[in-house]
Amino acid sequence: MSDATDSSGAAADGFEPRVTAFVCNWCTYTGADLAGTSRLHMASNVRIIRLPCTGRIDPLFIIKAFERGADGVIVSGCHPADCHYTTGNYHARRRFAVFHDLMEFIGVDPRRMTFSWVSASEGAKWRDVVNEAVTSVRELGPFQAYRALAPKDAGVAAPTGPSAEAVTQAEAS
Amino acid sequence: MNELREVARTLLTDGTVRVIIGWEDARRGARPVFITDPADTDRLIFDTRCVHNLVTYLNPRRDNVAELGKIGLVVKGCDAKAVAGLLREAQLTRDDVVLIGVRCGGVLEEAELPEAAPLSPENVAPRCFGCDNREPDLVDHLLGESQPEPPRPVTTIDERVAALDAQPLEERWAFWTEQFSKCVRCYACRQVCPLCVCERCVAEKTRPQWIEASPHPRGNLSWNITRALHLAGRCVDCGECERFCPVGIPLSLVNRKLQQIVAERYDYTVSDDPENPAPIGDYRLDDQQEFIK
After folding, report:
1. At CA B12, angle to CA B11 and CA B18, rounded to 5?
2. Which residues contact A167 (CB under 8 A, 6 or more apart)?
3. Of the candidates B98, B110, B99, which has an alpha carbon nearest to the alpha carbon of residue B47?
4. Which of B171, B233, B283 is opposite residue A90, by nearest beta carbon?
């Protein structure tokens, strides 16, 4: 796996993948933090969302990420037997196995969805996971198929439903 | 059929139950019926038109049915699996209901026929092929004669799933997005499902709104994936969601795929044994994790 900044450099066609990472607070987030404090170079396309546990990650989060314009997602948490809440990652493992297979059946390329176990001490593994995920999403290109499903009058990343402003106004009136 | 009426009459007369839910012959074919008067039990029927899964009336969302008093419910094998599902998830206690099981040799695709037709590959409900629960165990009374196996339909659900699986990803995506784009978000699939038990569905949450409510392809995909996933390892394959879908989305294909996934990964088949835990919500230390890095 290529280390360093060239994997995060812009592709020839200017496509920069947007990858959303849902990570658990106790292992992967700390591992990602370690990657940062260790000054490991990695692709900068990943936006991390920290959650208490992989067991807290609903498959709807992933669907929502795709809806809001993500080209790929990463789900990562504690290794089996390491869960802070004892069993959260075991439950997540089953849920995401089923989700993974269902999405493949629906026609979503599984390479857009990366699942991994990264512990608090595995900063280097986190870097590899990120780089591999970004590389494969870069090869696949933007997730146009999903964006094409958007309602015609809405932009790709436009918020769904009424804006916060509109809601406040409606409530006030 | 006399046996069924006799049992129903006895249950109502001796006060064991307050209402019998079964099927009756109506102007447009078979339909569900609620019987409270022992004199009306002669209206009960069971034949190949009795496709409805009446367990939907036990769903805790329908508290107006529970208010009628103790229920006697006529169930086929697939319906008994749905009762087991409710028991497994503590949505029902076994004493809430008297189950009158009927031996079943398969049903038609269509309930609205003036006469019960014998089953043939053309008219049999495809889900009946390969049924493993034609004589339910989870019942208080098991009625009727032993039935022959249902005929093999022209195309089985497994064959249709396999045909889809054989196609490239893009073709599958095109197929499903086209199917789901037809969805009008009437939620009939959810309303009829005996196992969609949430008091408040995630599809109706607005803050935050997880599933876009208006019927457009993106929200429809989100809804349909969510519906299917929430039934993973729970769906009893009664086929009611697909039968009720007003736009004809082949939901049985998604449901069957999920059955195959849990069978393959967790060696799990939905049964009418409520003690057998469902695969989602359970785990093993050595579950497969080949998709995890």
Report:
1. 110
2. none
3. B110
4. B283
Q: Which of B90, B19, B2 is nearest to B54 (CA)?
A: B19
- Contact call for B169 and A91, based on CB within 8 A: no
Phi/psi at B65 (5° precision): -75, -40
**Tokens at B256, concatenated:** 């069957």
Cα dihedral sign, A72-A77-A79-A80: negative
Residue with tokens 């969510």: B226
pLDDT tens per residue across span A23-36: 999 999 999 999 99
Residue B117 carries which DSSP code? P
Distance from CA of B192 to the nearest CA of A (A): 23
pLDDT at A12 (0 to 100): 52
- CA distance linking residue B42 with residue B99, whole number of Å: 18
Q: Determine the Cα–Cα distance for residues B274 and B86; give it in Å rounded to an integer.
A: 8
The rounded distance, in Å, linking the Cα atoms of B130 and B199 is 34
- In a 10 Å sphere around its CB, with 0-12 CB exposed, 13-18 middle and 19+ buried, how is residue B43 labelled? middle
The dotted CATH code for A5-172 is: 3.40.50
Which helix (DSSP H) or strand (DSSP E) does residue B24 occupy?
strand B19-26
CA dist., res. A114 & res. A22, Å (int): 10
CA distance, residue B269 to nearest chain A CA (Å) = 15
Distance CA A2, CA A127 (A): 10
Give the helix/strand (H/E) hosting A73: strand A72-77
- Other Cβ atoms less than 10 A from the Cβ of B134: the count is 19
Q: Give chain A positions within 8 Å (CB) of B157.
A: none
Contact yes or no for A106/A59 (Cβ under 8 A): no
- pLDDT of A75 strictly over 70: yes
Distance of alpha carbon B41 from the chain centroid: 25
* Residue B245, both tokens: 């879908």
**pLDDT band for position A14 (50/70/90)?**
confident
- The vertex-B73 CA angle with B37 and B9, nearest 5°, equals 35
The residue among A38, A125, A142, A40 whose CA lies nearest residue A76 is: A125
Please state, rounded to an integer, the average pLDDT across all residues of chain B.
94
For tokens 């034949």, the residue is: B47
Q: Where do the domains of chain A lie?
A: 5-172
Q: How far is B254 from chain A (nearest CA, A)?
A: 8
Query: ∠ at Cα B271 (B96, B5), nearest 5°?
Result: 50
CB-CB neighbours of A79 under 10 Å: 15
At B151-174, the pLDDT tens digits run 999 999 999 999 999 999 999 999
